[in-house]
Amino acid sequence: VDGRNHTNTLEPIDAGSIGATWDNAPNQNVGDNEYMVTEIVMKDVDEKEEDKDSVKLKTAVQARFQLLQKLNACLKKMLPYVDLSLVGKSWSLAALLGQCRGLIFSLLKEPIWDHALADTQAPGQIFDLKLSRSRAAKFANAQDGPDVTGRYMVFSQAFRQINSMPTTTFRPPRETDRVYNVIFMGERSHDAGGPYRESWSEYAHELESASLPLMLRTPNGRHSTGQNRERWVLNPSPLTQTKRDLFSFLGKMMGIAVRTRQFMALNVAPMIWDLLVGAEVTGEMLAGVDEMLIQSMTKIRHIENEGVSEEMFEYVVMETFTTLATDDRSVELLPGGAQRDVTFSSRCEYADSVERYRMHEFDEQVACIREGLSRSLPTGLLSLFTGAELERMVCGTPDIDIDLLESCTEYSSCSANDQHVKFFWQVMREFSNEERSMFLRFTWGRSRLPLNAASFSQRFKLLSFSRSPADQYYPVAHTCFFQLELPQYSSPAIMRDKLRYAIYNCTAIDGDDTGVGMAAAAMGWEE
After folding, report:
1. pTM for the predicted model, two decimal places
2. What SMART domains does the entry give (predicted)?
3. Of these residues, 368, 414, 480, 506, which one is catalytic?
């Protein structure tokens, strides 16, 4: 809890941060009779300089957490008897739990979730998946619009081959390393894990681009204002059957990501994750993707504060009961809305209608994704989770923790004390998060780290590179084995330049001289 710049009053509990705060708090015991918090850490409060307000704040926070622990002790007894399938019924206990989902500690939810995943898992056979990245690149470079037929991009090619497979395909056991074996056509790649992880990176990259018709940049991003400018929302354009199937397939792949912890590096806006878990949408959520809209509607509601009278209104506001959707389509807010002018007396009705439409414009797309999720996950339990928690399960965390990576590193024919290895870790810490993500993709075929050391399926290995002069060579990655051959560069600057070139310019997997790799190369670039 941040003790800086506080006031004498406390804001309502931020449910979204409860889980993370609790997970890092000591004495996490919610047994039947053990619910007292013994310590809450207050960040950036110097005890020697604490004033009375600081002491009051700390006491209030501790009291709140005592209350939360008592709540969770009660929930521990009650949860096994709640029918969570009734979450849509306002009178049900499930609905009440959904309203306080952010106050439920993860140590209560996760065992229930893990048990349900284990009960619904279905071990299956690994199958071959043929993907042509050249075909996808050729289509994207033609700039003829998105792949609305679902045939050309890598995600679309996977959709055509996987989507109609049995439901068991999308319910692999937790420990599954790969669901399928990737054959990158025209590339000398032999899938021992690297090409598989690379395919997931391709999916995420394509989904957040103009090459697929499923997502759009947030209005905040397009207008360079507000929060979540780097995030994406679902494309609310009218759904064809192909688009429905593509959204459903996205849900199925999200489910596989959750089950196998093969994270999809998606930057989807929090509002979409909240919709996926069935949380109620608020104006604050909408402002998180389109702040200008909320500001405009607020001004219209209170336009008299701007000096605009009822007589002046029709000369200042020349709107009808229509609005622009996120995809810039003009839509009527009610039948005949294009012919109905907004008046001073109807301005609040208009503002409410605009916000209501925008809060629900993704409903059909969300329903399709949830349908896909239900083929893989026990979606009835999602009412226990916040949108942020679902995002973490699907995507991991976007922040690349170099300390975590270094702690999971092994060395072969070199050591952590070698000068060039020290240069390497120095440069990695200086890299931006985007550069760190690109480095992971170069060396491991994925864009995000596991959540903790225990979740690493492979440890990162730094290998010696014996050729000289070292400064003339680039590093060599083995994505299947999470290995990097690192030349003994003479300075951090050269290390930085060589790594940057490699991570941004070497995306093809084209160095496997095995029979399988040669056979994949012989397939050629096009189908």
Report:
1. 0.80
2. HECTc
3. 480
